[in-house]
From TrEMBL:
This is Restriction endonuclease type II EcoRII C-terminal domain-containing protein. Signal peptide: none annotated. Transmembrane segments: none annotated. InterPro entries: DNA-bd_pseudobarrel_sf, EcoRII_C_sf, Restrct_endonuc-II-like, Restrct_endonuc_II_EcoRII_C. Residues 284-439 form the Restriction endonuclease type II EcoRII C-terminal domain.
Length: 453
């Protein structure tokens, strides 16, 4: 029950979204991170692919109806296909002839076609397709949603199925995941109740269910990464792909740690909200009255979960960037106050060097760190003050037009190496996007460090 409540609570404005409804009603769910080809056929003219690529493993998993050979000339290459019904409630369309087709002349390549263009035409990079399968006698129907990577539903989707930064495609049984999440909370809740019965719940909360400060949690994630890879530090000059390392730490390891602490924090807070801190005899009626009397506080507690995650993510990313700069023995100043109270995340090598009238390689630069951008990159523009600005991010969802707007302003994006080359992002097409490795070894070491020294 707790896991189901989380789904509802973390939806936009506390409402039950189409996604939440699908996750609670579908027999099984296919989730796919959309590549550029999977979505830009609906956004750009003259694209040959019209639909979504489905890998053979998922195609033949039983989620879709089996492919059947199409009747055609015996000398022609075989075409294998199947048709099924899909509903697309976001665009109020239904398709009775959605097609899954494999042209064997192209190998195992299979596409789902005859899908509504409107469902894909405005999606950001790294968005998701979610298909819920509903059994119906001998056949099945499918409810389909496209989840924009910049939406709150994208966070809910990642929460429910534990999708990490490298997720591509998977088929899930939602009830199994909801049950597993509930069991994790219940297992910890048993410890909470034991502490409550012993009269020690306040101390228990301090010792076992207090979310670490952002700086501490970031340090825990880095320590775990370093131990796993047997590294002494995050020196970017000794890492093959320093950006991918930062992404793994911030988007996978720290996220897993955060979720575990959040489960503990919320389980403990719920018990204390309903039962109080002092043990006593309590009946079912007393317990229900406690729930009803405190429903507002319970709502606030659940709704605060996603906001807590969002507010911490940006600060955490800054801590990781600072750790990389420090491990690389690079000169920098953090959060220095510039003109008009501008406070960039990092200035390299110093504010004094940044303010020197000389231009070129001897002048300092600004490095801003943003986990996600959306429209916030426009705020960074105000920090430039005529200086070169590098904007580090692990955001997959930045559209091509935003990247081009940044290029026009002289902003250079610094992204993990894996994202730079990914077919799920727009980065590979733009010269003002570089990887972390190039930032440290070319932009800093080769082009600027000699002048700074």
């Amino acid at each position: 029950m707790a896991a189901q409540f989380d789904l509802v609570a973390e939806a936009a404005e506390g409402s039950v979204t189409l996604l939440a409804e699908l996750l609670h009603t579908a027999d099984s769910v296919l989730v796919k991170k959309l590549s550029n080809n999977d979505r830009d056929w609906a956004q750009l003219p003259n694209k040959h692919q019209h639909g979504v690529y489905i890998p053979p493993e998922q195609r033949d998993s039983g989620f879709f109806p089996p492919l059947v050979a199409k009747e055609r000339d015996p000398d022609a290459d075989e075409i294998r296909e199947t048709y099924f019904h899909t509903d697309w409630p976001q665009v109020a369309e239904a398709k009775n002839d959605t097609r899954l087709v494999n042209y064997t002349s192209k190998g195992a390549e299979t596409h789902m076609t005859r899908v509504p263009k409107a469902a894909f035409s405005t999606l950001s990079p790294a968005s998701h397709l979610v298909m819920g399968r509903y059994s119906a006698g001998d056949g099945a129907t499918y409810r389909c949603l496209t989840i924009d990577s910049n939406s709150d539903d994208a966070l809910v989707l990642a929460d429910v199925f534990g999708l990490d930064a490298d997720f591509v495609i998977g088929i899930f049984e939602p009830q199994a995941f909801l049950t597993a999440e509930r069991d994790r909370i219940v297992d910890f809740a048993e410890l909470v109740i034991a502490a409550w019965l012993a009269g020690d719940i306040a101390q228990f909360a301090v010792e076992n269910a207090t979310m670490p400060a952002t700086l501490e949690l970031a340090g825990m994630a880095r320590a775990q990464y370093l131990a796993q890879h047997r590294l002494p530090d995050l020196n970017p000059f000794k890492l093959d792909r320093p950006g991918d390392a930062v992404r793994e730490i911030s988007r996978r390891i720290e996220w897993d740690l955060f979720r575990e602490y959040q489960r503990r924090e919320r389980a403990t807070a719920l018990v204390r909200t309903v039962l109080g801190d002092r043990p006593r005899e309590i009946s079912a009626g007393d317990f229900i009255r406690g729930l009803v009397d405190n429903i507002g506080e319970i709502d606030r507690l659940m709704l605060s979960a996603s906001q807590q995650r969002k507010s911490r993510a940006g600060y955490s990313f800054e801590h990781h960037i600072e750790a990389v700069l420090t491990a690389g023995n690079l000169p920098f100043a953090k959060q220095v106050v510039m003109d008009a109270k501008k406070r960039p995340d990092f200035v390299l090598p110093s504010l004094r060097q940044l303010k020197r009238p000389k231009l070129g390689s001897t002048r300092g630069i600004i490095l801003s760190a943003k986990t996600t951008l959306r429209e916030r990159w426009k705020q960074v523009q105000r920090e430039m003050a005529g200086s070169e600005l590098f904007l580090a991010t692990v955001d997959e969802s930045i559209a091509a037009n935003a990247i081009e707007d940044m290029a026009a302003l002289g902003i250079i994006l610094v992204v993990p190496e894996g994202l730079k080359a990914s077919s799920d992002t727009e980065y590979v097409r733009h010269p003002n996007v570089i990887g972390f490795k190039d930032f440290f070894e070319i932009e800093i070491t080769r082009n600027r460090l000699p002048g700074w020294q």
